[in-house]
Amino acid sequence: MLNNTAFQARSRLIDEYKKSFEVRNTNLPKAVAVKKATKENLVAEVSFPKDWMYINTKGGEKKPEKSKVLMVPIKGGGLKDYRTSSGKIKQSKKPANLLKYMDAHPTKKKGRVANPHPFLMDNKKGQTLIAVRDKDDRSKMNFLYVGVPVGNVKKRWDFEKIVKDTADKELQKNFDKALEKALATAK
Length: 187
Known about the structure:
Elements: H1 2-20, E1 33-35, E2 45-47, H2 53-58, E3 60-62, E4 70-73, H3 95-104, E5 118-122, E6 128-133, E7 141-148, E8 151-153, H4 159-185
Antiparallel strand pairs: 1-2, 3-8, 4-7, 5-6, 6-7
Helix pairs in contact: 1-4
């Protein structure tokens, strides 16, 4: 009964997750875990073991952990060329990897390069950008990320409310079914 309710809450969480987020990683909803109740411990737990999801349940400000700025993809920027077929940004094109690559390869000054190197630049507003020159026309640039001191994260879903609502709605039904089955099979 408790475990059935917990798994119903898990299913509802996955459905709500898909409605609230643009899901590019199809394995992520499977991370919603259920710790089953036992006869010794009559508590079933539903959890999402990813720390970054907490801010999405409450909303708030996301601050960079190690650097001074948080690199945010530019909408309509050059990242459209660096996405996989499912829409995820390639691992090699994430900010930390681009900057590692930039530091490891000195810039070339002459001629066309096979793979243009990413670089940091500041715009007139004082924002830090990660950009890469166009492969064929070096006078054109693709802007990939912009650095912001704080990113505002809106509240997308309420994990606790979804689980509580499911428990309130389904627990009594599941209890009644289990009781009916127990009485029918009692000796």
